[in-house]
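So, can you check this record?

>
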Amino acid sequence: MAAAKKGAKPKVAGVRFAPGLQEAGSHNHVHFDEKLHDSVVMVSQEDDGNILVKVGFLKILHKYEIIFALPPVQRLGKSICVVPLPNLHLKVINITPLSEGHGVKCEYIAHKEGVLKEEMILANETDDKAFIKVVIQARVLDRHHGTPMLLDGVKCVGAELEYDSEQSDWHGFD
């Protein structure tokens, strides 16, 4: 094999597909599973009857407004309320009856990195034995990973809620 000249660019070969593969694809378009296109908050009822609400990627130390539709839950009936729980990071703003289920609006503070789960308890206003647990699940990114694209139903309403000068990259003048 002959030695390559210094500074010479290598030749790049093209990619060829087997004859049957080109016709099998639909004109070189890429198709994704429909679930990958979902850009809304995902609400699902678990086997135990509780509700899981996946709100996607959020950024640490940001405050979000989250709105989702709760499916009809027979044991709760039409008039439901939130059970007051001591939670600094999740606050229910209001619950509105819909034609099918209820609309829930809450505020959430992304207070640490990773997959976070915050709970709220919703109950029937007249029967305190009828209740369900709703878990809000978010993937919280640190401040160095950019700004996540928010799902429909999630809106950033505040940023850098707590600022720790010890973690700052800026040191100022001494």
Confidence is low (pLDDT under 50) at residues 31-37, 165-174. The chain has one domain: 39-162.
